[in-house]
Design goal:
Chain lengths: ~800, ~150
Amino acid sequence: MFLRNMGIIPGKAPTGSDKGGPRSTTNLSRRSFVAGSGLFVVGVTLAGCSNYVEPDIDANAFDLPNPGDSPLTQVAGGDASPALWIAIDEDGAVKITCHRSEMGQQVWTSMAQIVADELEADWDRVEIVQAEGHERYGDQNTDGSRSVRYNFHRLRVAGAAMRKMLTDAAALYWGMDPSECSAAEGLVSNSQNSDTLSYGNLAELAARLPVPAEDDISLKKPGEWRFINKEIPSLTIPLITRGQGTFGIDVDRPDMVYAVVARPPQVFGRVGRVDDAAALAVPGVLQTVRLRDAKPPALFQPMGGIAVIARDTWAAIQGRNALDVQWIDGPNAGYDSISFAEAMKRTARRPGTVRRERGNVRAGIARAAQVVEAEYYAPHLSQSPMEPPSATAHWTDDKLECWACVQDPQTTRQTLADLLEIDKENITVNATWLGGAFGRKSKPDFVVEAALIAKEVGKPVKVTWTREDEVRHGFYHSASAQRLEAGLDADGKCTSYLHRTVFPPIASTFADGMATPTDGEMGLGATDVPFAMPNLRVESGDAKGHLRIGWLRSVANIYHAFAVQSFAAELAHAAGRDQKDYLLELIGGARTFDPGEEGATYPNYDASIEDYPIETGRLSNVVEKAAEMARWGRDLPSGHGLGIAVHRSFLSYIATVIEVSVSPEGMLAIPGIWLAVDAGTVVNPRHARAQMEGGTIYGLSNALYGEITARKGAVVQDNFPSWRVLRMGEAPRDFEVTIVQSNTRPAGIGEPATPPAAPALTNAIFNATGHRIRTLPIIGATGSRLKLPETQTA
Amino acid sequence: MAKTLKINGKTETVDAAPGTPLLWVLRDHLKMTGTKFGCGIAQCGACTVHIDGTPTRSCVLPHDSLEGSEITTIEGVEGDAANLIRQVWVENDVPQCGYCQSGQIMAATALLAENSDPTDADIDAAMSGNICRCATYMSIRRAIKTAASRA
Ligand code: FES
Ligand code: FES
């Protein structure tokens, strides 16, 4: 690997064939001798040029000045130096470093598409090297649906710079002007003759040339894209179908032992008396380790408890079952989520803190011909990726190496440094594949656990969370109570709109006692509401956190979109209007707006409002598209209903129409879903469609069944029967996705399909039955049908 | 006491505590990590293997009950149905994160081997024990139908 061997690739090369992390497994033929030619060649002779044999380039034959430093360390998005991202082997293998975590969104493939397109690589020779956690890569937090948005430009620049260096190298070799040389599919050709030089052959010479400045690089035009915006097949799936690839839970190290942890039932509960004799008597159990008690604020620290270490995971689980631990109540022992829900609803009925204001809502409502009020409640949720958290840690003297399914290996490394009080330089964090994440794996508490235990044990330790651990000891999606009020004029037009939202903020996990919803969370569907009425006010109310509150796929957008888009349909009903038409009227004409001009502090997903304005025309456009796809307004069989919702999140615009059928007994089915998305430039439409399906079903699963409750501070649910998720038989029969073709800046894909799912569903149920659902979940863990009030029929 | 198991046609000797489920024998003792852990209580299907051709949850299956049985895992499942399922899975990019997919492929392979023309109801019945949190359900259904049209 020339670039690495020359010391200009700072990334750590994969270490051997042990299961230390994911990597592609292509077997590469090394330099090959072509019989009869008398020459060592690289690559293949070109079809149609049967007499041409590619000469072997000797980079040492060129006396080149020191190439100097890369001028691309600070392009928009970060460091675009080719050496950081691309290594080309002498045999032509193109190794692209992926610094984001692969969790099913196909980020390996999308990052490679971006680099390889500008590089003009031969796609069949592309391999992925997963980056460890290190600042050199810039942001690695695979969260917030922003891998493409953050990296689209700089990875294109890196690929294009490398392409230029390869063509410059070919020009140097041929003694031509670079303008006479061009690159395509891993080969450089020239305009004078039919000779070609392959990337593998050119790599060493190219690596000795200066990196071009951004001004000297020309990016391809969208019409010239070969991989971007194309349905390139996934790089991971062929491995997955054979059970290959390494997830966090699959990591294996020599001499490794296995651990599970008994954690206090409540957050900040503590360990009291412990009797581990029975645990130690379980065959295969090696020892127990007492972890230090957790103290507020929660941050990413482990929750304490007793670890049981054994020679396999099963023995560790059996040992844990045999532990006799007396838990000491902590400050959250009084938390009861049911009564807390009532308290939040009461808060939502009182004036709150104004977070955005236009006109005078109170006066508007006082003058209204009709006032509509509604209250909504949505419970805590668990992310529950199929792969529960799992991490492996190994200490060698004072050096720590970890392998784990983490969304952010950099934060993981920093957290380890902080909590173990060791120098970051002594810590290596390897990100494995993630068996789903949905926000859970952006919290590295489980890696710290592994490091603490491994330190005591003196061997590599893998900590596995059982499903019960994952459901009971998570970082939960916040529960929320919301109240909306609106005034309609005599024509049914909405003139005044008040939205009050109450929920424990994620900040409560990071600062003890934080109870005020943050600007970030308010900007997820509350303060950025796109409605055009003259009087509008958004308020928040405080609520304290008693569980660890954390991110879950699309975060506060879930409950905000549920309330706002349900309420839009309630207003349509009050006005006697069609849901879709009324929704478009609420949005109003095509315009851009900045909630900041109406008093909001609006982060806009960390993007500038100039680069990514809120464009109501794009919202209306996806509403029209989804409605058209669903043939909105068509005659429906009795018991069927169509519902619509639209939401902008993660800078993307998505409208969803759902058709439900409800039997007289309340049995619910989903015959079809139609979704239109405008996410700007889409790198891989096929994988974007998969995220639209996945994000929608994730939202429907939560809305139909999802509910985490707590009693005496402890989570009640424990595994899939009580924490219910949607299964194959409940999935829609038909799911159509339209991606709006666009060359504007890329926006998010992984999360934004989730928010409109729940309100589209409840709006459809309303149209099918006349029954308005304002409290989630709709069916719950044990239910099998809708609870329809007897007076309401279709 | 050591037990002799026949896995993917090969004889393996394992020394795990009596009653240890096959899942952990595969994953921790034999380092065959293609078979996944999702719930441990026969609720999610991530751990599905074939025992004498029948899809079975390995997380609740004591390994010491399996002497003499043919155990097949994702790493070793072959034959027409398995090849076809793998092919349509790759063609359609069915998996997302992939974590549930060993179980999905084992279940779908067994379905297709039994029933070369499954209806929606057959697919629901055979596959509803396999949870996918990435929600690849629609892709799985499409892919099984594609496979059936070629079987
Ligand atoms: S792990 Fe066996 S069914 Fe879930
Ligand atoms: S593909 Fe991720 S859980 Fe099924």
